[in-house]
Amino acid sequence: MLCFVISRSKGDVRVDDVEGDVEERRNQVPSYVIMRSTYLGTEGEGYEYVLKLAETCLVSTRTSYLPDEYRDFNPPPTPLTILLLTMPFAQSRTYRHTVLASPPLTFPSTIYPIYSTPTMAELSTCLPLTRDSVIEAHNIIKPHVHLTPVMTNKTLTQLASTPRDPASLVGTPWEGRTPANPTLRLWFKCENLQRIGAFKVRGAFHAIERLKREPGWIENGGKSKGVVTHSSGNHAQALALAARESAIPAHIVMPSVSLPNKIAATRGYGANVIFSGSTSSEREAVAAQVIADTGARLVPPYDHPDIILGQGTMGLELQDQVRELKTDGKGLDAIITPCGGGGMLSGVALSCEGTGIRVFGAEPSFDGADDGRRGFETGKRIESVKSLTIADGLRTPVGEYPWSVIYERNLVSGMYAVTEDEIRSATRLVLERFKLVVEPSAAVPLAVALFNEDFRAMVEKEGGPDGWDLGVVFSGGNVSVDGLAKLFAA
User: Which residues contact 464 (CB under 8 A, 6 or more apart)?
Assistant: First the structure.
């Protein structure tokens, strides 16, 4: 038997399946253990859906989950045919429906919209995803964020510009290859020195400020109902701070495996913290319950235009700061950023559109966390990730809106991945040689520049003897002393 959980996020309908004994799992985990997700389709922002499963299903379900006005569908639910309604976040607590079925199962593509319920600032009020919009977002958030420094480090630049020892390539995909010999000049954007210790505050403040500008939101009691999000830590802290400074309640859904220092910091900004499972589907389900209970407005961690534009403001600053610091009057050749949900990467890509600056994404390879790289290679977004990489801020799949910028608009030139050991090594180098505290997620772009031979060979080929001036984003520094000790003990 398989247990299917029907859920929806921004109009997407998904079927999450759990292998094994259903009753046993019910006893172990109240919200079930979700192993993988199958994307079924979309019809628009905020819709409810009726999902008709194929008649090959052998189904047992509780139709009492459906509200009275939806119980008389024709044909009605039967052991061979079932109609399931995924409830709107703001209308009902019934946001997931359980189906017990025997495989094989097939799903039709038809999904029927019922009506719309917004979950964040209305898309009609959002700025278009352009460089000009990033500039406007920067003007909005300037009073609320730090202009973080851009720094250089001769030791790290020298390491990046030195061929690796061939022995270090043994056991890697590049074993037997002549090590690349790129010329790189590294410029570090230190968002680890940003408010709340991470770049996420940019998107959070932009989202809150845009939400406050939405017609009718304040007048209809939006401020008192509050905002809600799901995050493993940095977006959680960012939204908690941005909401507090506008006197708005913040409800933060955090995976139970979140780092204690990030949980404590989120609570320290005055947020109400609610725990969930670690997968995106589990986080979204708990967030849906909070919205149903409070009427709060969802501020997603990355998959929304307002978030993307806010994160992109760091790209504008990095470009300007490097031009001012360089003596030759030239700017950057490229920027590399971490990529989890893709809000930062897509925002920085927008900030570089039309400038000639190339943009790259960096991910962990551990346990499938390199979904962006794999999707980039196949041309199809990967919609589910379940990884416990040490780069805990990069455990989420790339969102739809970021993907549209990263891949569909071809604004990102490539995606590269590194191992856990390479991330540890890069983090250690930053601590010991740069004397800066960064979390493992923030060290992933540096690890790519130092250790990914495909990236390094590409820079050698395209940069030639002159090489590249490469902007490297240190995305955050929210790691505890105990966390660092555990990281390096491993």
Answer: none
Residue 194 backbone phi and psi in degrees, to 5: -75, 165
What's the number of domains the chain is made of? 3
Q: In what order do the strands lie in the sheet with 297-298?
A: 272-276, 250-255, 227-230, 297-298
pLDDT for residue 231? 83
443 vs 13, 223, 338, 394, 440, CA distance in Å?
A: 35, 37, 8, 11, 5
Q: Is residue 122 part of a domain?
A: no
Q: Which of 305, 338, 354 is the last residue of a domain?
A: 305
Is the CB of residue 337 less than 8 Å from the CB of residue 362?
A: yes
**CA distances in angstroms from 97 to 31, 33, 109, 162, 424, listed in the order given:** 11, 14, 19, 56, 41
Annotation says 200 is catalytic: yes
pLDDT at 124: 61
Say which of 232, 281, 351, 384 is annotated catalytic.
232
Of 61, 52, 70, 58, nearest to 97 by C-alpha is: 61
Q: How far apart are the first and last CA of the chain?
A: 39
Tokens found for residue 329: 């009057």
Residues of the chain under the 70 pLDDT cut? 1-124, 280, 490
Q: Cα dist. 322→79, 155, 188 in Å?
A: 65, 19, 10
Q: Which two tokens stand for residue 458?
A: 């590409």
Which listed residue (200, 223, 225, 262) is catalytic?
Answer: 200
Token couple for 240: 């908690």
325 in the same domain as 435: yes
Domain region containing 24: 2-116
Same domain, 383 and 401: yes
The token pair at 181 is: 């010999």
Q: What is the pTM of this model?
A: 0.75
> What's the CA gap between 170 and 229, in Å, rounded?
43
Indicate if 254 and 323 belong to the same structural domain.
no
pLDDT digits (tens, 9 = 90+) for 27-80: 332 222 222 223 333 333 332 333 333 222 323 333 333 334 434 434 333 322
278 & 426 share domain: no
